[in-house]
Design brief:
Blueprint: H1 21-31, H2 36-43, H3 50-53, H4 59-69, H5 73-78, E1 90-91, E2 98-100, H6 115-120, E3 136-137, E4 142-143, H7 202-215, H8 221-227
Antiparallel strand pairs: 1-2, 3-4
Helix pairs in contact: 1-2
């Protein structure tokens, strides 16, 4: 953290280890009892897109977040997919669009999730859940989920749309209609049923191998060969 300044928000919400940027901003907004869109406006990011920011921060966004929250630039960038660019994902230079592999994920602000992790971590979403290589939680030995069991949608990590009702951190933020003005689903994702995996079974063993050989070592030649 930096020293306090006149630009700093007089309340600190520290990122959790491995947390995604949009999850942290959502939790920050919730701590201030405001909507994430309004919080971004207050920060001076009224024209910014959380969908693009969680992929890669531009220098102005990073500088503004650092000045307003006190979180160092390197920590902010660790909460984005930038470090995986060119290995596990590709991020277009102009519009920060995820360009490859096209068939992996096109979820925008959503991600896979582990309900037990959300319960333990106060609704914080892990960045690596967005990677196509993440399919199981080795911490809780559960298969990751993709949809909310109540509404059937991919639950957004951060609140969007025009509906400004403040959601609970663990709740599904999916809107119930296409206008962006309807009520949110609100189902507690921490209670979503997930398949428990067998200790020593093939799925957990595969995820552990992927974590070690591909995600953790994603810049190595061997990992690049496996990844593509």
């Amino acid at each position: 953290m930096t020293t306090w300044s006149a630009e700093r928000i007089p309340l600190t919400v520290a990122p959790h280890p491995g947390e995604a940027l949009d999850s942290w901003l959502e939790r920050y907004a919730h701590r201030l009892r405001t909507h994430t869109v309004d919080f971004a406006d207050f920060l001076g990011l009224s024209h910014a897109s959380l969908r693009r920011m969680v992929r890669r921060l531009d220098p102005d966004e990073a500088g503004l977040l650092r000045a307003r929250t006190g979180v160092e630039t390197e920590r902010l960038r660790e909460m984005t997919l930038e470090r995986f660019d060119g290995s596990l994902v590709r991020i277009a230079a102009t519009n920060r669009r995820l360009t490859a592999p096209a068939h992996w994920r096109v979820y925008g602000t959503t991600s896979r999730y582990c309900p037990a992790c959300l319960a333990d971590d106060g609704g914080r979403w892990q960045l690596h859940w967005r990677l196509g290589w993440a399919f199981a939680c080795t911490r809780h030995r559960l298969l990751l989920l993709e949809r909310c069991p109540a509404c059937g949608k991919h639950p957004p990590v951060a609140s969007g749309g025009n509906h400004r009702m403040l959601p609970r951190p663990e709740a599904c933020r999916a809107l119930t209609d296409r206008t962006g003005r309807g009520a949110r689903c609100g189902h507690a994702l921490t209670e979503a049923p997930a398949l428990r995996l067998v200790v020593g079974g093939a799925i957990l063993a595969a995820q552990e191998q992927v974590n070690a050989a591909i995600i953790a070592e994603h810049r190595s030649p061997a990992a690049l060969e496996r990844g593509w």
